[in-house]
Amino acid sequence: MTDPRISIIIDRLARIGKIVAVSSGKGGVGKSLVATTLALSLAKKKRKVGLFDLDFTSPSTHVILGAKGAQPTEEKGIIPPKVHGLEYMSLIYYVGDEAAPLRGADTSNALIELLAVTLWGELDYLVIDMPPGIGDAVLDLIRLVPRIEFLIITTSSRLAFETVKKQIQLLKDLKIPVVGIVENMKMTESKKVQQQTEALGMKFLTEIPYDPDVEGAIGNPEKLFNTHLGKKVQKIAQTV
Amino acid sequence: MHEWALAEAVIKTAIEIAQREGITRVTEVTIKIGQLQQVERPIFRFALSQMKPAEFKNAKFRILTAKTMLKCRVCSNTWQFKQAKLDKEIAEVIHFVPEAAHTFIKCPKCGSPDFEIAQGRGVWLESIKGAKQP
User: What is the 8-class DSSP label of residue A2?
Assistant: First the structure.
């Protein structure tokens, strides 16, 4: 018996220029905010951009976008709706506000299903918001999406950066490209994360100061662009 | 209509297997579909017929149904999925992403959403038969 979904995935992604997974070894570091703002920033530059929320058990990009009422359409596959100029895909269309308690194998199956039936069409960028850690979603994307690149988010905390170092090591061992590291929610002047990142042979993209205004900008992309986070991520969008 | 996307995946995989095994004229393709995904057979079959390549011209598509068995990880209860018992909207959601079953279906014995889809989830390519180049 063969799973027919696997071989079609490469075709579904064939007309996408760059596929960037925004990821971290740790949760709560701002992956979803950076992923969503990065996608919005690229779209603001008139690029064709998709955003795919792969954090199935704790999705939040729809909240950051303020996506309401949008639904995919069906035409020989699933076509993501446009939300603030992004082709936006999330499990949220199917489970709504209900919990999706998925074990690893179920997460993999849902990920493969959505990759196999979603018709992205032609895009310059597909930004993927990853769940935390280096579990099923990371391993599946490495297995199924040969052109995947990772953008890694950490905070200044050793608790976050120690997990990020393990993720970097894994990606280096597997020869998976890393766009760079972003230090988010920075509250001190320390350059430790930048130095350690560079010592690992990785590109340190930027540091984003802790910004209490971000919470009030959730659900409003225009407001989000005007936060420190928004301004820094727009700069990253120029280099990705 | 996302049956077309699934059918396209089956055709592409079948072509790859046929090439790998040196089958030049495919006579039969057997596909197994789990009840949970509720694939619309007429649309799926029509999509297969429209997308099949020349070497599949005379191929017969056998579509088998696998009943869906769910097994609770908490109390070990095993039960069969019945589409008729579901609300239409929920059935449609599970049709698109079968794992949404964990959101909307609970173990009838203990109420847990922590169950295993033991069999009959989605679409599988079971086998290909045909003539090999002499």
Answer: B
Distance, in Å, from the CA atom of A180 to the CA atom of B107, rounded to the nearest integer, reads 45
Residue in B with minimal Cα distance to A6: B9
Number of other residues whose CB lies within 10 A of the CB of residue B78: 13
For A25-50, write each residue's pLDDT tens digit: 999 999 999 999 999 999 999 999 99
pLDDT band, very low/low/confident/very high, at B118 (cuts 50, 70, 90): very high
Give the type of residue at A28: G
Minimal C-alpha gap between A104 and chain B (Å):
11
Distance in angstroms (rounded) separating the CA atoms of residues B123 and A236: 41
**Of the candidates B45, B4, B123, B129, which has an alpha carbon nearest to the alpha carbon of residue A75?**
B4
Rounded to a whole number of angstroms, the distance from the CA of B11 to the nearest CA of chain A is 8
Decide: A101 and B114 in contact? Cβ < 8 Å. Answer: yes
Say if residue A42 is exposed, middle or buried (CB neighbours under 10 Å; 0-12, 13-18, 19+). Answer: buried
Q: Is A173 on the interface with B (CB under 8 A)?
A: no
What confidence tens digit (pLDDT) does each residue in A117-147 have? Answer: 999 989 999 999 999 999 999 999 999 998 9
- CA distance to partner chain B, nearest, from residue A51 (Å): 18
* ipTM for the predicted complex: 0.94
What are the sequence ranges of the domains in chain A?
Answer: 5-239
Residue range B24-41: mean pLDDT, rounded: 96
Domains and CATH numbers, chain B: 3-132 (3.30.2320.80)
Which of helix, strand or coil describes residue A83?
strand
Helix (H) or strand (E) holding B116: strand B115-119
CATH topology of domain A5-239: Rossmann fold (3.40.50)
The answer to whether residues A156 and A183 touch, using CB atoms and an 8 Å cutoff, is: yes
Interface membership of A112 toward B (CB under 8 Å): no
- Which pLDDT tens digit goes with each residue over A84-108? 999 999 999 999 999 999 999 999 9
Q: Tens of pLDDT along A54-83? A: 999 999 999 999 998 899 999 999 999 999
